[in-house]
Specification:
- This protein is an alpha+beta fold.
- It has 15 helices and 14 strands.
- It has 3 domains: 292 residues, no CATH class; 102 residues, no CATH class; 57 residues, Arc Repressor Mutant, subunit A (Orthogonal Bundle), CATH 1.10.10.
- A 9-stranded mixed beta sheet has the order 2-5-6-9-1-10-11-12-13. The chain has a 3-stranded antiparallel beta sheet with strand order 4-3-14, with no helix packed on it. A two-stranded antiparallel sheet has the order 7-8.
- Helix 2 runs antiparallel to helix 3.
- Bound molecules: adenosine-5'-diphosphate (ADP) and magnesium ion.
- Adenosine-5'-diphosphate binds next to strand 1, strand 9 and strand 10.
Length: 473
């Protein structure tokens, strides 16, 4: 399918993210909420929907929901559990307990690393369903021979986070999900594992002509289980809708299924309306009205959130938005700030954290050692390349940067020695030198590379460039 003309069309995206809350037990019973296990072993009478079993609300799930709501700048409010009625074999009660018109968290927002603000309509509590596995016929229900039902997951607490249709492209949609995941993990509400289904994304996509006042008709895409699929599904679906409209047809509101193998979305069912579910307040549960003091206590205990950490770092280093976001994402901001406090140059600290500290163990670096390495570099005792080598060793084994540098024989090169090498290269490569003098900056790399070869990487690239420039005069 062709890619769409973005001068003419605008893509509108709103995401519904389901996060499994990291509780020990289920939302309304004491059965374990642990992932996996032999099928149908994490169950109890309530999970099975046996007559006479009654739900008892898990207060830890409520606390986790409130943590997320506060982190998403929502209002935490009085809420009501409702029955959402529908039949499916992986849900023996024949209804799902969810929150409908009164969700626990309402009207918040999430700030993306780019600074973009995405509205959050609500984040409500509900229970997860079990899992059906369709056997035969390619694993789809339509032509399966039989199906297996595992109720281990049924009743595990979920938080459904409904985003407003504020996203305009696949990249922002991916950024929204990863930011949301970072927030969920930061507040300890979820492990955020998309591959284990702890985080599941339903994606609503519509298109409209630029300047149109109304949104177009949306389709909801299910079964997206990675950020990569999310981006691909959005691009495919937007193009499909534009093609429909261009050929004089209309987009029909539908639930569609993303197929990773053929890279397309497929019709799953026409969209149910709220009326179909016959929502009504669950008579087995009372309304949930969290004590404001409790909410304030939870707020006070929240950790610093990713957006706040980005702002804090950016204020100190002034690096690019991308660098700051990457450093926070890698959990290196505390290290960087401590190294800067210990006197290291902020620019060099950011450069190292961005380019040379992708190793997970970098988080355990000793800030003082990191700072003294950076100081050796800015004092001219180490070249950038040497500093990188010493840093890798520091991450690997720890220790003292000065001793590591000495052990590797990294001593600052004598200027006259470097001059001799550069002059020798200039006379050995007259053609390249002429091009350099004519202003062809690309040959700089050639000369620097030759010097590095001759010195075993000991020379400072910047010093070499400066020398080359001084020789053109
Ligand atoms: P439903 O209950 O049918 O899922 P909601 O009103 O809760 O409907 O909206 C679900 C999601 O659809 C929200 O995340 C919202 O941002 C998104 N959405 C609503 N309208 C549009 C639209 N025209 N285009 C894209 N997304 C939309
Ligand atoms: Mg919905």
């Amino acid at each position: 399918m062709s890619s769409i003309d973005l001068d003419r069309w605008e893509v509108v995206i709103g995401l519904e993210v389901h996060a499994e809350l990291a509780t020990r037990t289920k939302l309304f019973s004491a059965a374990t909420a642990e992932f996996g296990g032999e099928p149908n072993t994490h169950i109890d009478p309530l999970t099975l929907g046996l007559p006479g079993s009654l739900p008892v609300l898990n207060s830890h799930a409520v606390e986790l929901a409130i943590r997320v709501g506060l982190a998403l700048n929502c209002t935490v409010q009085r809420s009501v559990f409702a029955r959402k009625n529908y039949f499916y074999p992986d849900q023996p009660k024949n209804y799902q307990i969810s929150q409908y018109d009164l969700p626990i968290n309402a009207d918040g927002f999430l700030e993306l690393p780019s600074g973009k603000i995405v509205g959050v309509e609500r984040a409500h509590l509900e229970e997860d369903t079990g899992k059906s596995t369709h056997i035969g016929g390619g694993g789809r229900i339509h032509d399966a021979q039989y199906s297996l039902v595992d109720l281990n997951r049924a009743g595990v607490p979920l938080l459904e986070i409904v985003g407003r249709p504020d996203l305009r492209n696949a990249e922002d949609a991916r950024a929204y999900v990863s930011e949301l995941r970072a927030v969920l993990v930061a507040v300890g509400a979820s492990d955020g594992k998309m591959e284990e289904g702890s985080l599941r994304v339903d994606c609503n996509v519509s298109v409209r002509e630029r300047g149109a006042a109304e949104f177009g008709t949306r389709c909801e895409i299910k079964n997206i289980n990675s950020l990569r699929s999310l981006g691909r599904a959005i691009d495919y679906e937007a193009a499909r809708q534009v093609d429909l409209i261009d050929s004089g047809e209309r987009v029909v509101q539908q639930t569609r299924h993303w197929n990773e193998d053929d890279g397309r979305t497929h019709t799953l069912r026409s969209k149910e309306g709220a009326d179909d579910y016959r929502y009504f307040p669950d008579p087995d549960l009372i309304e949930l009205d969290p004590d404001p003091e409790w909410v304030e206590r939870i707020r006070a205990e929240l950790p610093l959130l990713p957006a706040e950490r980005r702002h804090r770092l950016a204020e100190r280093v002034g690096g690019s938005t991308e660098a700051v976001a990457l450093i926070v994402d890698r959990g290196l901001d505390v290290l960087c700030l401590a190294a800067i406090d210990a006197g290291a140059d902020a620019g060099r600290v950011v450069t190292h954290a961005e380019h040379n500290l992708s190793d997970e163990r970098a988080r355990d670096l000793d800030p003082a050692a990191f700072a003294s390495l950076v100081r050796m570099e800015t004092d001219g005792a180490l070249t950038a390349t040497q500093a990188k080598t010493v840093l890798a060793e520091l991450v690997e084994r720890g220790g003292d940067p000065a001793s590591i540098a000495a052990a590797k024989g990294f001593e600052a090169m004598d200027t006259s020695e470097l001059e001799g090498i550069v002059d020798g290269l200039i006379s050995a490569h007259p053609d390249e030198w002429q091009r350099f003098c004519d202003g062809d900056v690309k040959v700089t790399g050639f000369f620097v590379g030759q010097v590095m070869k001759a010195t075993g990487g000991k020379a400072d690239g910047k010093a070499v460039t400066a020398l080359l420039n001084s020789r053109t005069a």
